[in-house]
């Protein structure tokens, strides 16, 4: 087994999920159309880290203010990939609230969500970079899994 990979058992349906789980950043997946491996790291604007944080999404749907519960799947200094029970179209404007700090940031949906059994995997981007929003230290840009 490769020591740089983190393998976690799947939680049972009755298991209580912790509010935040941090995994090795090299296990983050990339979009099918994006380059893989070291080229993918150079292609991205910021380091992606697998991190589960409970969040709230505030959005106006057909002019009606609505709130949804969501969970991050991965985060970076410019946004996140969240699991959401609602399908939001590309360019939908929303406010994301960090479940731990209650801090809020304005953002938008950047591509069509992908429907999964967990919900709609929705990529969001902050209006401006906010590296301190997630309250984690992102690895340096030259850090690679083979260095671990």
The whole-number mean of residue pLDDT values reads 76
Rounded to an integer in angstroms, the radius of gyration calculated over CA atoms is 16 Å
Number of DSSP helical runs: 1
CATH fold-level assignment of the domain at 45-127? Thrombin, subunit H
Helix amount: under 10%
Shape, principal axes of CA atoms: globular
CATH class of the domain at 45-127: Mainly Beta
Biggest sheet statistics: 6 strands, antiparallel, barrel
Order of helices and strands: HEEEEEEEE
> How does the helix and strand content classify structurally?
mainly beta
- What does the oligomeric state look like here? single chain
Number of strands: 8
Poorly predicted runs are 1-44
Strand percent estimate: 35-45%
Q: Span from first to last CA? A: 14 Å
Q: CATH superfamily of the domain at 45-127, called what?
A: predicted glycosyltransferase like domains
Secondary-structure arrangement, i.e. CATH architecture of the domain at 45-127: Beta Barrel
Strand order, largest beta sheet: 2-3-4-8-6-5
Write the layout of secondary structure elements.
Layout: H1 38-43, E1 49-50, E2 54-61, E3 64-76, E4 79-84, E5 93-98, E6 104-109, E7 114-116, E8 119-126
Antiparallel strand pairs: 1-3, 2-3, 2-5, 3-4, 4-8, 5-6, 6-8, 7-8
Walk me through this protein's architecture.
Helices cover 4% and strands 35% of the residues. With 148 residues, it is mainly beta. The chain has a domain at 45-127: Thrombin, subunit H, CATH 2.40.10.220. Strands 2-3-4-8-6-5 form a 6-stranded antiparallel β-barrel. The relative contact order is 0.19.
């Amino acid at each position: 087994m490769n020591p740089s990979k983190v393998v976690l058992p799947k939680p049972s349906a009755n298991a209580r999920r912790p509010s935040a789980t941090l995994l090795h950043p090299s296990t983050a997946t990339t979009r099918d159309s994006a380059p893989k491996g070291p080229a993918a790291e150079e292609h991205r604007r910021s380091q992606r880290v697998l991190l589960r944080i409970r969040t709230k999404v505030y959005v106006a749907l057909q002019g009606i203010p609505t709130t949804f519960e969501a969970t991050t799947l991965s985060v970076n200094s410019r946004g996140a990939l969240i699991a959401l029970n609602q399908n939001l179209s590309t360019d939908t404007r929303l406010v994301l609230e960090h479940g731990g700090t209650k801090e809020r940031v304005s953002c938008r949906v950047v591509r069509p969500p992908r429907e999964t059994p967990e919900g709609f995997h929705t990529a969001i981007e902050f209006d401006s970079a906010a590296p301190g929003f997630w309250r984690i230290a992102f690895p340096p840009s030259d850090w690679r899994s083979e260095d671990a």
